[in-house]
């Protein structure tokens, strides 16, 4: 038996909450935002929220949950599943530099890694860069500020001490090097001494 949609008058086989599928979809869409506007870092691709950043996946998952829907995808549009229907909302992306990538650009660093054993330095830098992108998902200061090639080695300036130490230990093991750490006082902030670490890896 044919049914009629009271909203548009169309005759259909099935009604959703008393409406045809199109009108029902429209009704659900009306309760959702028309467009989502986001600030995205042009360098690291993270979503900028105030002075901080969040990874795209958890951000969109949380947003979908807030809209009482299931997340399907999030590229040019946010695709959600709600009440058995697939809905899409456009995403407006505004690109700028996030707090952490700005610090990196300004030359901010907390640790200097000095490689002083014989090796393929480009290969080591490439390895650290790869590790840095992985680590930045959790440690936002794990960026590389600057790389300086020298006749007898390479200096890598890093934002995060924790990341620099972790990498240093890995390289020490891999290349059987000797590690030497020196701390330099850079400032006293609110009675707290702030140090910058220099980690040297030398031939054993
Ligand atoms: Zn209808
Ligand atoms: Zn960034």
Q: How would the blueprint of this fold be written?
A:
Blueprint: E1 3-4, E2 11-12, H1 21-30, E3 35-41, E4 47-49, E5 52-54, H2 56-66, E6 70-74, E7 77-82, E8 85-96, H3 99-106, E9 111-116, H4 121-135, E10 144-150, E11 153-158, H5 161-175, E12 178-189, E13 192-202
Parallel strand pairs: 3-8, 9-13
Antiparallel strand pairs: 1-2, 4-5, 6-7, 7-8, 9-11, 10-11, 12-13
The structure holds zinc ion (2 copies).
One zinc ion binds next to helix 3.
Radius of gyration: 26 Å
Mean pLDDT: 94
> What portion of residues is helical?
25-40%
**Strand-and-helix sequence, N→C?**
EEHEEEHEEEHEHEEHEE
Tell me the β content: 35-45%
Q: Which word captures the global form?
A: elongated
Enumerate the strands of the largest sheet in spatial order, edge to edge or round the barrel: 10-11-9-13-12
Helical run tally: 5
How many structural units, i.e. domains? Answer: 2
**Low confidence ranges:** none
**Topology, number of strands:** 13
Return the structural class.
alpha+beta
Chemical compounds bound to the protein: zinc ion
Summarize the biggest pleated sheet: 5 strands, mixed
* Terminal residue distance: 87 Å
């Amino acid at each position: 038996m044919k049914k009629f949609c009271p909203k548009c008058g169309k005759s259909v086989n099935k009604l959703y909450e008393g409406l045809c599928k199109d009108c029902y979809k429209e009704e659900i869409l009306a309760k959702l935002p028309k467009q989502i506007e986001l600030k995205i870092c042009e360098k690291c691709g993270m979503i900028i929220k105030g002075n901080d950043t969040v990874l795209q996946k958890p951000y969109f998952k949380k947003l979908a949950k807030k809209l009482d829907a299931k997340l399907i995808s999030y590229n040019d549009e946010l695709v959600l599943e709600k009440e058995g229907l697939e809905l899409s909302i456009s995403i407006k992306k505004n690109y700028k530099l996030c707090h952490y990538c700005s610090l990196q650009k300004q030359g901010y660093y907390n640790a200097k890694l000095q490689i002083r054993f014989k090796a393929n330095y480009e290969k080591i830098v490439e390895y650290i860069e790869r590790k840095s992108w992985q680590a930045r998902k959790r440690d936002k200061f794990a960026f590389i500020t600057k790389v300086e090639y020298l006749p007898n080695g390479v200096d890598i300036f890093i934002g995060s001490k924790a990341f620099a130490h972790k990498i240093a230990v890995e390289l020490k093991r891999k290349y059987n090097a000797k590690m030497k750490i020196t701390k330099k006082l850079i400032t006293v902030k609110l009675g707290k001494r702030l140090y910058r670490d220099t980690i040297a890896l030398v031939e054993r």
